[in-house]
Amino acid sequence: MRSILVLNGPNLNLLGSRQPEVYGRVTLKMIDTNCIAQGKSLGAQVVCQQSNHEGVLIDAIHAAKGCHHGIVVNAGAYTHTSIALMDALASVELPCIEVHLSNIHAREDFRQVSHISKVALGQICGFGSLGYTMAISALIAHLEETG
Ligand code: DQA
Q: Which NCBIfam families does UniProt cross-reference here (predicted)?
């Protein structure tokens, strides 16, 4: 069975109450539940993890090798700053889809730079929590296509 890691970075544990006008009212728990259900409906296992710490996220990416077939990642603000996370994703050579709830390209200049995009198959942003289930469908389709 295919297995996908859904990895969320800093401050995303606060979804639901954090700037709802930007990020919506859906909690991370609801997102995780939807991701697991979406995976199940497509015959894949989904495992969800969140951390506010860069090193913990890097360790989770390293541990994904040999354990999961792909990664859906919302690295939060580390998207714009962390070469270490980009390197970790490149190192494990797992297909990865980048997700953001907000449309980072329509926001402040500093949010328009993504180091993650350089190593991701693609980016989904601006669709709120729906972006995660879109990414799971896209990743499973990619895995099926590439065998
Ligand atoms: C975010 C966008 C980032 O710029 C921000 O730092 C976040 C959330 C998003 O999902 O829209 O924490 O990744």
A: aroQ, PRK05395.1-2, PRK05395.1-3, PRK05395.1-4
Range(s) of the domain holding residue 29: 2-146
| Per-residue tens of pLDDT for the chain, all 147 residues | 999 999 999 999 999 999 999 999 999 999 999 999 999 999 999 999 999 999 999 999 999 999 999 999 999 999 999 999 999 999 999 999 999 999 999 999 999 999 999 999 999 999 999 999 999 999 999 999 997
Ligand 1 centre and the CA of 66: distance in Å? 28
Q: How far apart (Å, rounded) are the C-alpha atoms in residues 30 and 28?
A: 5
Cα-to-centroid distance, 1 and ligand 1 (Å):
31
Total tally of structural domains belonging to the chain:
1
80 is in an annotated binding site: yes
pTM (two decimals): 0.97
Q: Check whether 101 is labelled as a binding-site residue.
A: yes
What CATH number has the domain bearing residue 73?
A: 3.40.50.9100
DSSP-derived secondary structure for 29-73: HHHHHHHHHHHHHTTEEEEEEE-S-HHHHHHHHHHHTTT-SEEEE
